[in-house]
TrEMBL record:
InterPro entries given in the database record: P-loop_NTPase
Cross-referenced SUPFAM superfamilies: P-loop containing nucleoside triphosphate hydrolases (SSF52540)
Gene3D superfamilies per the UniProt record, alphabetical: P-loop containing nucleotide triphosphate hydrolases (3.40.50.300)
Protein's recorded name: Phosphotransferase
Amino acid sequence: MPETSFQGQIVDSEPASDVFLVIGIPGSGKSSVSAALARRFPLGAHIEGDHLQDLIVAGGHLPSPEEDLEADRQLLLRARNASVLARSFHAAGVVAVIDDVVVRRAHLEYYREQLKGLPLRLIVLAPAAEVVSRRVAERDKVLADDWSFLDEALRGELAGEGTWFDSSDLTLEETVDAILAKG
């Protein structure tokens, strides 16, 4: 077997054109849209917030409607880790697409601080509540709680932030086309 050396290999190259942060409530289509969006680029990476949360295999606290300071801390840790990955991919010329449940201004501002200096494109997926309810009921992923109240928080706290898409009547591909068309 020939000997291979990584010495002299360059990981970083021309930085990527964009970093996307795709947000919305559970069931809004973030993961599906983000994966499809990342696939549209010659080099694209999908960074899924839920998967980063799953890396905590002991002592994990999932977000819940009740106050849980440790869950809040872990939510910010997940945002920081997603941002570290996005920054690394960006430097290597890979378009990073982060998806996460972000409905509070403070959480969004934390992401913005972590991604400062990158060409960030904030995408807000906001389909109609009845569409989200149907999607949640049809999917394999089971949610522990009814998160529909988050829609009100998202629309109230983040109105006017980023580019909003009501994907209620759009297919996955049509949603990605619409995001890319907004360039």
